[in-house]
Amino acid sequence: NSARMSDVLPPRKYDEIVCSFQNIAAKVTIIARNEVKHFCEHIDLDLRGDQLVFIAVLNANEQHKESVVRHAIKLAVKLSVKWFLEKENIRRIEMKSSPNRVSVGLHYGTVVLGLHKRFQGKTGTSKPVKTNRVTPEGFAINFGKRVESASRYGTGSGITVSQSFKAICNRAGFPVLFSGAIHAEAKGFESSEPVFELTA
Asked: N or C: which end of the chain has fewer CB atoms below 10 A?
């Protein structure tokens, strides 16, 4: 709900809430990264404003895939619970308001790992600095963003998964439950794709 918050809250108050989210997200993500780094060829992390992107690139080893998927669910649940218990949410509950929740999208798909150009602004220079970094690129990343957007249509946890992510959970026999399919508009895609909300 950050777009609405940024519109109605004073800038300093909004910044305080974003900083609180970033602190929680950074702590949870560092733990998750340390838990999955042994299974991964590459981990791409980006925490900017109200958005956290965590991309784990791994080889085709089925057992590693299941381990990373399990840790991704753990990361999503930890982030949601810690954010739910954040002081602003406690204050909102005490004032009989609905707490703010975090929206999470989990997707599994294929990416290309390679050198891609990135630009960074540097203080005191008039031009951005070009860097070459090994990063993942591909349709799966764009689709993952759409899965996250669809989480706003959920009514419970706010954690949604794609069909491919759900299929891995089912094959592995993870003790997690999902809602029925949520058909949400996927911006930039010709048809809506079903996503599923984590319910238990």
From this structure: C
Q: Is 19 exposed, middle or buried (0-12, 13-18, 19+ CB in 10 A)?
A: exposed
Q: Which two tokens stand for residue 184?
A: 């949400």
Over the stretch 9-53, which tens digit does the pLDDT of each residue have?
A: 899 988 998 999 999 999 999 999 999 998 888 999 999 888 999
Residue 133 contacts residue 46 (beta carbons within 8 Å): no
- Residue 25 CA from chain centroid, whole number: 10
CA pair distance 160, 178, nearest whole angstrom? 9
CA count, 13 A, side-chain hemisphere, 56 = 28
Partner residues linked to 106 by β-bridges: 161
